[in-house]
Amino acid sequence: MQEYNRVSARLQAGLLFLATIALLIPSAISKADPVAGAAITQKLSVGLAVLLTVAYGLGMLFSLKTHRELFASAQHGDAGEAPWPIGLALATLAGVTLLVALVSEVFVESVQKAAESFGMTPAFVGFIVVALVGGAAEMASAFSGARKNRLDLSVGIALGSAAQIALFVAPVLLLASYFIGPTPMDLQFWPGAVVMIFLATLTASLVTNSGRSTWFVGVLVLMVYAIFAMTLYLLPPRSQ
Q1: Distance (Å, whole) CA 142 – CA 150
Q2: What is the C-alpha separation between 98 and 172, in angstroms, rounded?
Q3: Most-buried pick from 16, 25, 94, 219 (CB within 10 A)?
Q4: pTM of the prediction?
Q5: Which stretches of the chain drop beneath a pLDDT of 70?
Q6: What DSSP string describes 153-217?
Q7: What are phi and psi of 173, to 5 degrees?
Q8: 187-190 long-range CB contacts below 8 Å, 24 or more apart?
Q9: Can you give the pLDDT at residue 73?
Q10: DSSP 68
Q11: Strands (E), 159-203
Q12: pLDDT at position 103
């Protein structure tokens, strides 16, 4: 039985649920009224991107400034482990981040081509293969933290990374696409993908609600992930 900060997990799950709502709305409008939906989806996506970015910033302010005492770690790992100096830690983080970004760019491109050569669908490659390869460094850090009984770190990496992508990276890319992209992006996705995102967010909220975890909880989460992977492999979206 391992414990972690339930408040932090709830915050990250709440941010993910907010992002899921923002993804559901454009898809719902386009299905309800295709003519009107196509006309307002672009404007709605820009507005939602701004709101998600603001929500992510306020979430950071809430957890790091105004209510940071609520997010103290539930586990402290090895008592005899000396902390790093802040300067050395920041320099190491910057160097490793740069190296991981360079390696991931080459690795993801190679794996994507290899997966397509094996007959995998673009949906499976994008949602499963590229996601696994691109997040390999984060997953390794999460596994290492869990083995050292630092489950707060593991949960923070898992949920925090997803929240960062959904509420900050994706909205920023959408806004930047109006200036540097060939065509503007929007938040309208394949409905099946949106449903899977909603179910994944719901699963994350349910399994992190207690602030405790056992190995069988991990099995249940992996089974949900395996269901998504099997579905994407056998039933890709009609339009890629």
Answers
A1: 9
A2: 20
A3: 16
A4: 0.75
A5: 31-39, 72-82, 236-240
A6: HHHHHHHHHHHHIIIIIHHHHHHHHHHHSSS---S---HHHHHHHHHHHHHHHHHTSSSEE-HHH
A7: -65, -40
A8: 187/22, 187/23, 187/25, 187/26, 187/41, 187/44, 187/45, 187/48, 187/49, 188/26, 188/27, 188/30, 188/41, 188/45, 189/23, 189/27, 190/123, 190/237, 190/239
A9: 58
A10: G
A11: none
A12: 79
How far apart are the C-alpha atoms of 96 and 195, rounded to whole Å? 35
Angle, to 10 degrees, between the axis of helix 170-180 and the axis of helix 34-61? 120
Alpha-carbon distance 103 to 55, whole Å?
31
Identify any residues that bridge with 213 across adjacent strands, giving them in sequence order.
Answer: 2
Provide CB contacts within 8 A for 191, sequence distance 6+: 27, 31
Distance of CA 237 to the CA centre of its chain: 21
- Residue 190's closest CA among 131, 108, 126, 234? 126
Contact 171, 53 (CB under 8 A): yes
DSSP state of 121: -
